[in-house]
Amino acid sequence: MAADIHRKILVIKLGALGDIVLALGPFAAIREHHPDAEIVLLTTAAYENFLKPCGYFDDIWIDTRPSLWQVPTWLNLKSRLRAGGFTRVYDLQTSDRSGWYFRLFGKSLRPEWSGIARGCSHPHANPDRDFMHSIERQNEQMAMAGISHIPDARLDWVTANTARFGLEERYALFIPGGAAHRLDKRWSADRFSKLAQIIADQGIQPVLLGTSGESELAEEIQTGCSAILNLCGQTDLADIAVLARGAAGAVGNDTGPVHMIAAAGCPTTVLFSAASDPALTAPRGASVEILQRDKLDDLSVEAVAAALRLR
To answer: Most Cβ neighbours (<10 Å): which of 42, 111, 183, 273?
Structure first.
């Protein structure tokens, strides 16, 4: 490989959680391709502490995602980008927002840019990119920028003390929530409860994961299965990855934590409705089973129980 001329590199990835997990392979590839460069990640505050130990970045900058009318914030971001001394940018967000960041550099200070911003030096020039799964789309984008080897996502660098949860020897993770405005992507609480009882009857402890805002949903599921351990609102991203390593299996809706669990190597069953397309957004991992119905109400407890992969 020719000597790397890039001493300062910016990577842009703003979220959501599933997108961050799906970008872990490209993150690792960029570090491998530029071993001596100073690499900065521009992301949102939600992922700063989680990504600090990964070893892929020398620094993490927080993007507050300013609105158009927040002019002072835009000017500060412009000044910081221009002063950064970046010679190459890997835009893994490839959104309208990151396209504006390309323009903030101005023509005279504009670095090499891998992405889709108009006029960038290394465009992902595939008109069908929006019809590709995130993994294949990013891998092709990296190849067009000269990085041909993209490893699978790794989470072995994540550490957390999960002993505080007092888990039984065998447990399975349940992720019944998801975006509050996308209820059509959620399987019903009653069916999660019945599935949890089936798992409990096999001597496996059902463990609920979710946000504190999903506590009411978790309590509804608990009413039908007293064996459930409810950890909603008690786990951070590192906890989820470490819990996934030790779990017998997992089942959940199409939502960010499921991506983390699958990438950690846990056997994972993911429930999709017609509201999202697994061909474009499915979690990736060593053992992932996808179940899809147009309406999740048409997905029976028996069908999910039969599809579960438990170790």
So the answer is: 42
